[in-house]
Amino acid sequence: MGIIKERFKAKADLANAEIKEMLKEHGSKKIGEVTLSQIYQGMRGITGLVTETSLLDAQEGIRFRGYSIPELQQKLATAPGGGEPLPEGLFYLMLVGELPNEEDVNHITSVWQRRSHVPNHVFATIDALPINTHPMTMFVTGVMALQTESNFAKEYAKGINKKDYWNPVYDDAMDLIARLPRIAAYIYRRKYKNNDHIQPNGLLDWAGNLAHMMGYEDESFKELMRLYMTIHADHEGGNVSAHTTHLVGSALSDPYLSYAAGMNGLAGPLHGLANQEVIKWIFEMQQELGTDAPTKEQIANYVQQTLSSGKVVPGYGHAVLRKTDPRFTAQMEFGKKHMPDDKLVNTVWNIYETVPPILQSLGKIKNPWPNVDAHSGALLVHYGLVEYEFYTVLFAVSRALGVMASLCWDRALGFALERPKSVTTESVKGWLEGKDEIWGD
Ligand code: CMX
User: Fold this and answer.
1) CA 390, CA 316: separation in Å to the nearest integer?
2) CB under 8 Å to 133, separation ≥6 — which residues?
3) How far, in Å, CA of 441 to CA of 421, rounded?
4) Beta bridge partners of 56
5) Is the distance from CB of 259 to CB of 400 less than 8 angstroms?
6) Is 377 in the pocket of ligand 1 (CB under 6 A)?
7) Would residue 338 show up in a list of annotated catalytic residues for this protein?
8) pTM of the predicted protein model
């Protein structure tokens, strides 16, 4: 057994024993109440699942195993000469629950290098799609084609003891993460660079290699990819992509099927696709106003126009956060360091000063502040990555780190099939009239 697998198993065994004990003593304690509004309004705020890898605080933002993004930037190993954390380190932290040392991080880099081979049929499957297919559709199709490689599916077909589920799930998670940069880069070069593909570089880290295979050799772009892959990795368990991966995995669908399902959710404009929507919206604003440096007043008018045509302002608002997303701030800091005079990046900062008071004045939006997607596109455009339909694929590659670490925990802790109760409006009306029995079971 590999050293990281062993450490994970040891931690999971301890956690399993603790949870059993906790449930024995406190299993019947109530953790909250559910209101009628909540079941009609996206189950917002209902505590209903366990995700070990990260926790979201409405005011503070995300913490990965207790560490904020600035803390990770200080504590995780970087590439030689670099300043941003290597996402390999964050994956180790989420999986094992402890900060890795440099050796651990390098070990993951080499394990992922070793496991990164993608069989030819995956590329052939992507090639079968028309070139105008959205990159997220190509990406999820590629992941589905890769499902032929699932260790878990093979072991389950042979008949595996449920106590051992975690083992092939762990291997699938590592294989899948290792292979995703190749699939993502393949799609990018196929769709936008005339099928002129670039071979991986066996000496590079996971995110650096993704940049390389996409054709971006600038060292500061590689740094951006390391930061990007770190901050988009996880956002506790209730968001659409994480929750879907967990839900589908709870049916013992293998990690490839579960992850593909989650990424179909990430491809929605209210979730991960918002990163492409933000840049599309800014480009349209620039075109309509005839300037690449709109004033704050022009931005404010354009925002009003967006709102009055019944559209959302992409990149703003959040289901849980109630402050500026620290993932936005981390990207803003990166922009200040690497491209303080970039016009598009400055427009993003002007939008940040303009939009929140307008959204606040509407009185109905719970969070007028920017989320992660408000900033990411402008940084990518700076390096020439202008093909904004591709942006959600980058989010998806990163999100694999969190949802796959979580899926390992789900199986190691023996989490159950997810199956909450639903009701009909008819049954709700009956309940309001005092007919309790109408809820069924
Ligand atoms: N622009 C315009 N209206 C907005 C808005 C925005 N950015 N954010 C929220 N609202 C509206 C909602 O549509 C809702 O309107 P109705 O009452 O008419 O239906 C109202 O304000 C209340 O919504 P809320 O409770 O504040 O927010 P939700 O939890 O329902 O939704 C989110 C959260 C992210 C879907 C929403 O803020 C939004 O649509 N934002 C723009 C899209 C976006 O940036 N998504 C990315 C989120 C981060 C990620 O997952 O990647």
Assistant:
1) 20
2) none
3) 8
4) 62
5) yes
6) no
7) no
8) 0.98
Domain locations along the chain: 1-25+38-272+389-441, 274-382
| Residue 171 annotated among the catalytic residues of the structure | no
CATH fold of 1-25+38-272+389-441, please? Citrate Synthase; domain 1 (1.10.580)
**Cα distance between residue 171 and residue 167, in whole Å:** 7
Q: Which of 270, 372, 373, 392 to mutate to test the pocket of ligand 1 (most atoms within 8 A of CB)?
A: 270
- Give mean pLDDT, residues 417-432: 95
* Domain boundaries 274-382, CATH class: mainly alpha
The residues, any chain, with a CB within 8 Å of residue 95's CB and separated by 6 or more, are 4, 8, 53, 405, 408, 409
Among residues 318, 375, 382, 410, which one is catalytic? 318
Task: Convert the pLDDT of each residue in 368-385 to its tens digit.
Answer: 999 999 999 999 999 999
365 lines ligand 1 (CB under 6 A): yes
Please indicate whether residue 373 is annotated as part of the active site.
Answer: yes
The predicted pLDDT at position 441 comes to 53
CA 41 to chain centre: 23
Q: Cα–Cα distance between 166 and 157 in angstroms, integer?
A: 15
Helix (H, G, I), strand (E, B) or coil at 202: coil
- Whether the CB of 398 sits within 6 Å of ligand 1: no
DSSP 228: H
